aldehyde dehydrogenase (NAD(+))
Amino acid sequence: MAALPATDHLRERARAALARCGVEHLDESAGGGHDARTPITGGTLFQLAPSSAADVDSAVSTARSAFSDVWRDTPAPERGRLVRRLGELLREHKSDLADLVSIEAGKIGSEAAGEVQEMIDICDFAVGLSRQLYGRTMASERPGHRLMETWHPLGVVGVVTAFNFPVAVWSWNTAVALVCGDTVVWKPSELAPLTALACHGLLMRAAADVGAPQEVHRVVLGGREAGERLVDDERVALLSATGSVRMGREVGPRVAARLGRCLLELGGNNAAIVAPSADMDLALQGVAFGAAGTAGQRCTTQRRLIVHEDVADEFTERVVEAYGKLGERIGDPFAEETLVGPLIGEKAHRSMDEALRTAADSGGRLLTGGTRRLASEAPDAYYVDPAVVRMPRQEDVVRRETFAPILYVLTYRTFEEALELHNGVPQGLSGSVFTRDQREAERFLSSAGCDCGIANVNIGTSGAEIGGAFGGEKATGGGRESGSDSWRAYMRRATNTVNYSAELPLAQGVSFL
Ligand code: UN1
């Protein structure tokens, strides 16, 4: 592995990018603070002061007042101007934000830039949406009556995000919530506070530029406690949380207990089926990016390959060969040739190791990868060769999501068997089939086919566009964010009946008085 950049260099690069995004001053704590680290070297960049309970409360109060005093009554197209300005600033600062994403999440340059592009795209989408928050008008059963639905802002939206898409997922929620008339309190991952401060800085600049109140958005930093305060705060009308299934199982019931709304985007355990008729070159590209891209740290990462037994040996060999080539391109995400950056940290590496051991104990055969590349100058950085493991059956370890680059290979004989394996996991985020057989493709997309929120044909499991609704079923939590009509989750619906006649007929023909 080529030499890694020094932590000092990354710190200065981060500082410069932050300053350009309007964050001149970091609230650094002299000890006892929370480390902002980079997985590139495993080194500490800054020590930041976490938000106290009082800070979280005051962020919610501020956002709540901005909501009720100004924002909910600001016309939606006017609210769209704020998001349009944010989109412009994101374009201007694309490389600054991409640098920060690489530094904090370890993404390679093109993926970091892609993540920022995803933010720009959702801003464009949300600006259009600001003139399209349509309600329906229905035919009333009564003469001289109008029946319709109107949509109204909800209130404060609490946004809790994960390290792996530190900025895109925030933007899906925030761009849409802001045009819907909500205000936002964001708790980013503890592992990615710097990207959050930069986004907040740009949004504050956008607000100043268009004359919108800056209080529409607040950031709180910290770990579990800060998140819990948002979860339990009755003033948070919608809690949108991205993270593990375990986190969702805690958050969901707590928000439900106060009858709040929840939007959950939890773990995936995504599979691609490769049928004998597939275009194998295309399938190989889709599988390599889906399984090894982002070092296996997307919710949409492909974790299982379900390949027909007639083509299993040949296709798996090609995957292993492709992984061999990737092996020469693991390392510093800022280096042009790198395709696989670091794991986020020691814990991720430990889970990967444990999963590989459990898989081996369950009859799995490691075909490639799994070894750590130790960089002598950065003993706390975790670079690994993406792994491929052939499994005799879909054992428990395969049914769990391990947030690391492990691809389990399973084989099938009939398409029904493939579907059964595909759906035979607790999670339901994304799935795909590579086939040239139209019947298989349609069957996969049918009601009895893939049971995920995202189902693709001849495209891998990851890399969704923002225009569609993003999210999954079963243990993935059921939430939908980003495009299509996901905006409805951020608004409340009122059904209105207006009587413009001189009579008062009752519905269902009821008579009274
Ligand atoms: C995530 O991993 O939480 O579809 C989000 C994708 C990206 C978003 C992933 N557009 O892979």
Notes: The longest strand covers residues 145-153. The CA atoms of residues 299 and 311 lie 28 Å apart. The chain has a mean pLDDT of 97. The longest helix spans residues 109-129.
